[in-house]
Each structure stands twice: as structure tokens, then as C-alpha cells.
Amino acid sequence: MSSRRQQSRQSGASRITDDQIADLVSKLQQLIPEIRSRRSNKSSASKVLQETCNYIRNLHQEVDDLSHRLSGLLQSTDADSAQATIIRSLLM
What we know:
The protein has 92 residues and is mainly α. It has five helices and no strands.
């Protein structure tokens, strides 16, 4: 048997099925607010993946923005205050 065929058979056991993909796409649709708020549940898998990527990018940007704001707030507070301790714990 050729090595390609052998690799194909070995990796075939770990391949994901179309039903599993459909299930995962459905779960993503439920998690992403922009998709969940639509009245129609029909979206292509590629559209769901694109919107998921956009949503994750937006979340990363929000985290970066909040971290920056907290850092600025920390610099303007007394280093030994309870507020500074809380802010430091949020930045960890």
C-alpha cells in the first residue's frame, strides 16, 4: 500500500463528519450575538465563521482597550489603596 493511502486511512479515523461540522456551526450561531439576534437561522457555514472571527477580534480589541483604561486608572491612584489592589487584580 502506498504511504499516501496509508496516511489517508490513518487520518480518516480522526476526520470530522459533516454532521459534526453542522452541529459546531449551529453552536457558534447560538454564541455570537450578531447571528443570534437575526430572525432567520439560515446562515452559511462560511458566513458564521467570518462573523465568529470578527466577533473574536472585537472582543480582543475590547480587552485591550479596557486593559489600557485600567492601566491609566492605576497610574492615577495611590499605589497602596484598596482601589489600586482591585485594579491590579483585574489586570492579571
